[in-house]
Amino acid sequence: MKTQAVMAAALVSTLAVAGPVSAQDKSDWPGNFTVGTASQGGTYFAYGAGWANFVAENLGISGGAEITGGPMQNMALVHTGDLNFGLTTMGPARESMEGNSPLAPGMKMDNVCAMFPMYETPFSVTALTSSGIKSISDIPAGATIGFGPAGSTSDTYFPKMMETLGVDFERRNGSWSDLGGQLQDGLIDVVAFAAGVPIPAVSQLEVQTDVNIIGMTDEELKKITDSYPVSEFVIPASTYQSLEKDSRVVSMWNFAVANCDVSESLVYEMTKLTMENNDKMVSIHKAARTSIPENYTKNNVLPWHAGAARWFNENGYTIEADKIKQ
């Protein structure tokens, strides 16, 4: 697998916000860490790379973000220990935990533990204004739709959603940046994004050309929420220049995860740093507005890492013992 790592400096800089971590606390820490994200041009990469830098600067440990195929592949890489940390979505996490991952059919990926809530992933459709596509029902039969990297959240769920809504299409995979370029060049008709908003590739597109960011009708929302593990989500009009009003779509929650065998004290310090500095997280990516402790309840799939659970329980958020990986 060809990957690219984006490594962060291990120095505690003037941006540091956390208190010092004792040498004794670091005795079982790895020499460095890597976070599995997704393709460039997507929110996972921006969020994960920024978070890795933030942790490295404040905890004095070298770390970075790795480009991967997204949530499904991150579950596999973290489960096997190839990566210490990753970002995942609850749908792919459930499938992986139950042994239904297309990457490793039959393998129950049960050595992946939750750390903290990130944000919701909205499922939204973008087309060029010149295409005349203003709604999902406008997508012509046989249209080529880009669904993101193979095995990503979008690629796992969006084609099924489109079929449920009666759309006839040809499937295209690729990074969000590549698909955005293909859309702009007229090589594909639509991109079906599943990523935290604002999506960097969409923001870039609307600077360069006129686009339609397409929501769902009441009937479409009901069909999708009745059939998939998603809920209604509103993309505020202020998110993109191209939106004249709020856009109603569906979404799925994302969590940062760790291999369950990673040092408890390291995961505790990472969780503490993240949950106690939301302003810094929002400066990394606006989607982190919901990376707050209160959203820990959105995890109903993964066991909790003992280090993360310790921070939540110390700060008034109850995680029962049977939900914590021992």
From TrEMBL:
Coiled coil: none annotated. It comes from the Bacteria. Keywords: Signal. Pfam families: NMT1_3. Gene3D superfamilies: Periplasmic binding protein-like II (3.40.190.10). The keyword Signal applies. Residues 1-23 form the signal peptide. SUPFAM superfamilies: Periplasmic binding protein-like II. PANTHER family: SLL1037 PROTEIN. This is C4-dicarboxylate ABC transporter substrate-binding protein. The lineage of its organism: Bacteria, Pseudomonadati, Pseudomonadota, Gammaproteobacteria, Pseudomonadales.
